[in-house]
Amino acid sequence: MKPTDTGRPRVVRSEREWREQLTAEEYAVLREAGTERPWTGEYTDTKTVGVYQCRACGAELFRSDAKFESHCGWPSFFSPLAGDSVVLREDHSLGMARVEVLCATCHSHLGHVFSGEGYNTPTDQRYCINSVSLRLEPAEGHG
Predict the structure, then answer these.
(1) Fewest CB within a 10 Å sphere: which of 63, 88, 120, 124?
(2) What are the tens digits of pLDDT across the range 83-116?
(3) 128 an active-site residue?
């Protein structure tokens, strides 16, 4: 996976505006690249059909049909929506080499993507995403 950072986000707010819009937990994860504790997120085990949006800006990021059970403690997807819904950025924090996943629209932190773990998915990738970074919009008739 190559980094795909394409410059400036399309939605730009001041840190003060982000703090006013987001809860403390949402701000810590979305704007400061924090991580929610495993097995605590509202979407870890959700099977509802719909589209997962960025909680910060509302951009559509993932579809429920790309979600799979990885048993890692966070919602996992094998692929984001087509096009440029997410940005990938090298992350060398915590003494590890990882690939950070950001919302392409507002550059909020979503989680990390891993590959080659052997999951039986079409892409062999695991987009490990914080529930607090997402908002699920259920499909019509699937609430």
Answers:
(1) 120
(2) 789 999 998 887 888 999 999 999 999 999 999 9
(3) yes
Separation between Cα atoms, residue 74 and residue 69, nearest integer Å: 9
- Report the b/e string of 6-35 with b at 16+ CB within 10 A: eeebeeebeeeebeeebeeebbbbbbebeb
What's 43's domain CATH number? Answer: 2.170.150.20
pTM to 2 decimals?
0.90
Please choose, from the candidates 127, 115, 58, the residue with its C-alpha nearest in 3D space to the C-alpha of residue 87: 127
d(CA 100, CA 130): 12
Q: What is the pLDDT of residues 21-38, one digit of tens each?
A: 999 999 999 999 999 999
Q: Does any domain span residue 2?
A: no
In a domain, 143, yes or no: no
Looking at residue 86, its amino acid is V
User: How many angstroms separate the CA atoms of 129 and 57, rounded?
Assistant: 16
| From 54, 57, 103, 128, the catalytic residue | 128
Residue 122: which residues within 8 A CB-CB, separation 6 or more?
Answer: 78, 79
Note the Cα 135 to chain centre separation in Å: 10
Closest by Cα among 53, 50, 54 to 65:
50
